[in-house]
What does this fold into?
Amino acid sequence: MTQELLTRDQILQAEDLPSETVEVLEWGGSVIVRGLTGSERGKFQNSILTHNGNKSGIGQVDMKEAEMRLVAYCVVDDKGKRLFTENDIKELGKKSGIALNRITTVAMRLSGFTETDLQDLTENLAETQS
It folds into this structure.
């Protein structure tokens, strides 16, 4: 079975960001969760690394903010525009952990993250810095 080879224009014009409406009972409604773009994924991964002042310079994943950051990156309006900015992350941290986890689970799936990706991110960083 031979598949058609895509052109540059076809690739750049493809609507390839999956989204899903997620019911958030704790908030009394639903939100649209969109997968990360390649640029957003890299920015998200960099944003959750912390060095915690350690002498080795080896980063660790800051799990306490990772969930809120992913929600901020992936919850969008009906036009696909992000609802939250970096300035909203601390406020999101005050919201229901159950609600945040529900959204994060969908955001991770839509963005192609596996359960071990955050752990792998830390391990890979340690290897490149040693």
